[in-house]
Amino acid sequence: MPEPLLIVRNLKTYFYTEDGVVKAVDGVDFEVYEGETLGIVGESGCGKSVTSLSIMRLLDEKGRIVDGEVIFRGKNLLELPEDEMRRIRGNEIAMIFQEPMVALNPVYTIGDQIIEAITLHQNVDEHEARKMAIDLLRKVGIPEPEKRIDEYPHQLSGGMRQRAMIAMALSCRPSLLIADEPTTALDVTIQAQILELMKELQKEYGMAIILITHDMGVIAETADRVVVMYAGKVVEYADVKTLFNDPKHPYTYGLLTSIPRLDIEQEKLKSIPGVVPDPLNFPSGCRFHPRCEFFEKGKCDVNEPELVEVEEGHKVRCYFWKKVDETKKMEAEKV
Amino acid sequence: MVEFLQTHDLGGDGLLTAYIIRRLLLLPLILFGVSLIIFSMMQVLGPDKLLAAYVNPNILDKATEEALEALKEKYGLNDPMIVRYTKWLRNVLKGDFGWSLVGKEPVKDAILERLPYTVELALYAIFPVVVVGIWLGVIAAVNRDRFLDHFIRIFAVVGWSFPDFVFGLLVLMIFYSMLNWLPPGNLSNWAEEVVRSPEFHRYTHLLTIDALLNGRLDVFWDALRHLIGPIMTLSWLWWAYLLRITRSSMLEVLNKEFVRTARAKGLPERVVINKHARRNALIPVTTVGGAMVINLFAGTVIVEMVFNRTGMGSFTASAALQLDYASIMASALFYSTILVLGNLIIDVLYATIDPRIRLG
Amino acid sequence: MRQETKRIFRRLFKNPSAILGFSLLIFFILVAIFAPLLAPPVNSFNPNMKLPDPYIMPVVSWKQDPIPPTTKKDVDPQKLGREPIRCIDYHPFGVIGGRDIFYGVVWGTRTAFKVGIIVTVVSTLIGITIGSISGYFGGWVDEILMRITDVFLSIPFLVAAIVLTTILGVGLDKVMIALIVFGWMGSARLIRGNILQVKEEQFVLAAKALGVRDVFIITKHILPNTIFPVVIQASMRMGSLVITAAALSFLGLGAPQGYADWGALLSYARDWMLEIGKHWYAIVYPGTAMVLFVLAWNLVGDALRDAFDPRLKG
Lengths: 335, 360, 314
Fold this sequence. Notes:
heterotrimer; A: alpha/beta; 35% helix; globular; C: mainly alpha; MetI-like fold; 13 helices; 2 strands; 1% strand
């Protein structure tokens, strides 16, 4: 296995609010390899966005990275001085966000904003940058890019705005693209187009993608490997096929089985009972235990399980993953 | 922006030109409404008191009942309000506002004479208000909750709490009575004589500009010296207000997603603030800032009285004290026109700055 | 709801400027309440006689010139023949226009509260009524009411107040009327805007679907959700209202000469501008009272706004 492009080790990001300390990311580990897509999946509030913002060091005032390392091409990003970090942002690591309407500056044309990114990191003049911007717009599938480049964000449709965002992010050929819920705010049909586009560009540019989403369907479509997060922690970590066919964490299992299926008879739609825990007050022991169907008192609510590699490339944070295996076998036999 | 759209009906299509046309059409209507209100207010006085606007009060005192009635008939004060209003309006549109007791000349001349002084004062006052207010507002927002922010905000709150006439009195107390640096009035006596002499050409009627154009630097400095106190007083209240608006607008913008995107691109913080955030933050500030600049004009009433200056402001105040109804109505119309025109300009400016509105 | 109220209160009082604002306000309220004790409203020649109207400041000196501040110690009780009475025999803040400044400041506090509260409450009520009708019913009712509001807003506040007080005559009640007639527009616009937003919300549509009468919908559903910004705006207007009222009195258009009103008190200073450095107390004491009063209301208004809408504060 070649060296990973990005290694995240024991990342802890806390928010200091007036109501208390929110441990949004509490000890997260994963790796991203060149050219692959790592999916980070979890419900809202599990810390996946904060993880990506921590990598980019774009947290707002109340957030602080209290522990851990983020090693990109051998350098720990958390120790870099700010101006070196800025050279990496938008240049080697780029990020796109969920809602392009609010993520793009409404008072500047998309051309201005793309050209700004280009001229910031590359030594080209305005004229050259403009040509590059038009090419980029064409590449992301925006028709008539020479006209569109002088339009404002509100003049484009949702899908096109997201394409423009992607163009802006890719303008400096980053080796890593972090996409935070890039399709959540879009129509389902547009979603598919954008994901297709990202896959194409990934192949062409040879870049890695961290795709953050709460939608298991998107993960299935695009990810190579998957990190499942819950309450600020990684609870399962595997490649996508294994995750879908052989989930070992009760939470992952719950997520997958709650997807309604057309091919078998379902009398009741299954769902994970309970709600996401209050980040100011996580449950003791395993953070998922109040909602877990495999909960065992005395074990799960006392000590938090470690993230353990149960097969090659498959890690789980649970004492009773074997029980999940058994339940799966039983369900399979029923059918 | 939601607020803008709520208080300003852009009409069905939202196009800029349609908007401007609509506002221009509304303008005479609004002025018409204003004149109606002002005129109606005057009618509360009743025909007896209104007579004083036309006839020397001494004569009125000695007049008999029949004589008074005859006078009232003569000036049409017994006619129904509609008739009187239309007559008054027709005169106003012709430029005849009546006779000013304060100025002892036609109101129109009295106003035209005094207007340049007020314009000069207001124009100069705009700069410290806008520059200081916005500049400090951005600094306060960027340094939110740190010492600088608190200091600036306290400074601003105290500023906003200071009545302008109290501030003016204090300025006179310290800088005039105690230090003798900034005297009240428009000009010193000697400078007054220079200005009134035939060699001095009144190109713009603005003292400072005219002094420069006439090559009289001494008059220029004298005029400026007399302006500093009033400018400080006039701008005092308003830069504090502008600061608050800028700060809160800036804070809102700094929370927006596109600021995060700008940082994610790797832009230095300075560029993020000055290029991306500030431009957006200033959009709502222009409306409020604009309204506030217009209110500067109204503030001249107090400031000119405190500093004993000639101008529309002291004219209005004197007219009020002397019950010079013709002058008061004209003044009110004048101030309202400035406000309405100013608002229109601001709104058009706002619509042009924000591409979301300009390009619908 | 209780969690939210607790949080609001906590935010309210954690803020040092809020504490300052509330303290100042309480201080002024106490001064207003204890005015008769602090500045006895008695006849200056016959201290056993109470003044018929304590708001007309008693003349305590027939000298033209202002008198600098004096304390109790400056008075000889033997010579006087009685215990020195504050404001009559000694003048903590000095004398101007023949009237005791301390008396004016103390009783002026009551005037300030009276004017401020009455005008704010009445004009806000008018504004809420007009704004609610306009916002709720929409259509041509809204159009007309908003045009009327626009017209009223087209006359600068001070100028309008000057015109109206000129017409109505001298007197504090006339000033209050003028301020009310031209002071309701802000509340009207604000609540109209809020109503326009809330009107489309689900729970209102649900109530309509149930057939609830319009009046009830407005009072029970819409108003409670839109009232807070209006309250906050009203408290912030208090400050500028008091300033405008004082400005009118200062110019001679509001309270009559000799009335216990800070603006009227300051208007005396205008006669002495040449040597005003010597007579600093005539400006400083009433001026400080004004600034602190307005500051108190501004701080309180700020604190209320920050407490209810912490987005802007953080």
